[in-house]
Amino acid sequence: MAERDSAPGGGAPLVAFLTGAGISTDSGIPDYRGPQGVWRKDPEAEKLVTYDHYMTDPDVRRRSWLMRGESPVWRARPNAAHEAVARLEAAGVPVRVITQNVDGLHQAAGVPARKVLELHGNARSVVCTECGARSTMADALERVAAGEEDPDCLACGGILKSATVMFGQALDPKVLGEAMAVARACEIFYAVGTSLQVQPAASLAGLAAEHGAQLVVVNAEPTPYDALADEVVRDPIGTALPRLLARHMTA
Ligand SMILES: [Zn+2]
User: Fold this and answer.
1) What are the tens digits of pLDDT across the range 201-230?
2) Which PROSITE patterns does the entry mention (predicted)?
3) Span from the CA of 181 to the centroid of ligand 1 (angstroms)
4) In a shared domain, residues 50 and 86
């Protein structure tokens, strides 16, 4: 077995999760950005979340703000799978969550924010593309509801966007670096509800296996990493994940 770095926070084996859109569909959030997602299948919708279009076309920004206002994310509640991960963490098992989702549902279920690495950012915050100032999406959407079609930065007048990684934007190298450290250090790596087709996120599964972690894939469809996995589970995530994680609670 390959040598592992010690788990952050002590000797107990670290349990890592990489979660994708599939973990949130039971919460009413469709897959937007995956290879088969809503955005990739609709070129007009994809424009709204493509950085160059967003920065150069005021009409794209106007439609983006309308889309954000109608997002199912604001009404979504964590489901049984998010809750199972939170329960594991609350039981004292060292847990880190790496997520491709921007819905904040792991934190809403009770996983401390410092233990959640959001590869694609967070839809609940807004960032200025000019000065980097952060504010809340709720405040920005209030301005939209009050009639501002493309609210600008209150500090510098710059273009505002959601604090998510758009198509054409690189992942935050710091977040990615932390995710890679987690993949190298963990004892077991669950890839849940992700097609493992989008890099560099998908490569974290390979990295974990390379460093000796047990790899468990929980996804309805086959993934490119299934052959590398110790366990592949096709059952619905909402029932499969609570069952799988119960194993760590009995020790
Ligand atoms: Zn600004």
Assistant:
1) 999 999 999 999 999 999 999 999 999 999
2) SIRTUIN
3) 32
4) no
